[in-house]
Write a structure and sequence with these properties.
The protein is mostly beta strands and 277 residues long. Helix content is 13%, strand content 37%. The protein has helices at residues 15-26, 93-100, 124-129, 169-179; strands at residues 3-9, 30-32, 41-48, 63-71, 105-109, 118-119, 122-123, 139-153, 156-163, 184-194, 197-198, 203-204, 228-230, 242-243, 249-255, 258-266, 269-275.
């Protein structure tokens, strides 16, 4: 059995906890497509069985978030998981609107101190918890859109963010505030989409049982954005490249009516990339 379960993660659960629960229910190897912080809720796709071999094809997919930032205070973790500290002003909506365009496109972002980034074999959050200042290099992230949705309280605002993988929304709250000469932290975060997986077809973990989880299983081939190619030449299934008249690119390979895996055509020659069955 292979495919994806699109889990609507509850705030407070870790991504690892969700994967372990799914693993026990399905009795299969599992893995998630992109960590969600415990603070965050929303879309957490979990690959079941051989679907975990396809994660590389989803890393560059867009992710959509709704986030709330509280201005005038910050926290060590840049979210509501630690105590607020510091003092700063609360900007007006117009001020915030004026700086958001600076964060759209390919931007340099320094990950939060409390993050899973590896530093000399240790997680950054492990070092930060011991009181050390972690020197994290900036990384390039892609933000496709960033908009202000409105004011939710005197010092809190809600935003919509569409971004590429590796973007830290907590860091975004820090950097927007810095651009306005103040401080902020993320008070709420929900992922509404991750590539083809959306909150509309996500299922709460509490709704899954060992008896019904297969009813929610999303077929692997249905979420792969590649054209289908039926291959009858048996040499392909023994790892031999075969000539093809279709254009170069990545294809979903079918052996008869059965989805077999991923193949890639280069220079008119099709070769296997990933076998799933």
């Amino acid at each position: 059995m292979t495919g994806f379960l699109n889990i609507d993660k509850t705030r407070g659960d870790t991504s690892a906890y969700v994967v372990n629960r799914v693993k026990r229910l399905t009795k299969s190897s599992c893995g998630h497509l992109g960590t969600l912080d415990p603070l965050a809720s929303g879309v957490l796709p979990v690959g079941i069985g051989n679907a975990t071999r396809l994660f590389d094809y989803f890393l560059s997919k867009e992710k959509c978030y709704r986030a709330r930032f509280r201005f005038g205070k910050t926290t060590p973790t840049l979210d509501a998981e630690s105590e607020p500290e510091g003092e700063g002003r609360v900007p007006e909506e117009g001020e915030i609107q004026a700086v958001l365009s600076r964060f759209v496109g390919t931007v340099e972002q320094v990950p939060p101190q409390y993050s899973a980034v590896c530093v000399n074999g240790k997680r950054s959050y492990e070092l930060a918890r011991k009181g050390g200042e972690v020197d994290l290099p900036s990384r390039r992230v892609r933000i496709f859109s960033f908009s202000l949705l409105g004011r939710t309280s005197p010092d809190e605002f809600e935003f919509s963010v569409v971004c590429g993988g590796g973007t830290y929304i907590r860091a975004l709250s820090r950097d927007v505030a810095a651009a306005l000469g103040t401080v902020a932290y993320t008070t709420a975060l929900r992922r509404t989409a991750s590539g083809p997986f959306t909150e509309e077809n996500a299922v709460p973990l509490s709704s899954l049982t060992a008896e019904n989880w297969q009813n929610f299983l999303i077929p692997t081939e249905s979420v792969l954005p590649f054209p289908a190619l039926k291959v009858e030449d048996e040499r392909y299934y023994h790892g031999v490249g075969i000539e093809q008249t279709c254009g170069d690119g990545v294809y979903k390979i079918y052996r008869g009516e059965t989805f077999y895996g991923i193949g890639k055509v280069e220079g008119g020659v099709l070769r296997p990339e990933k076998k799933l069955c």
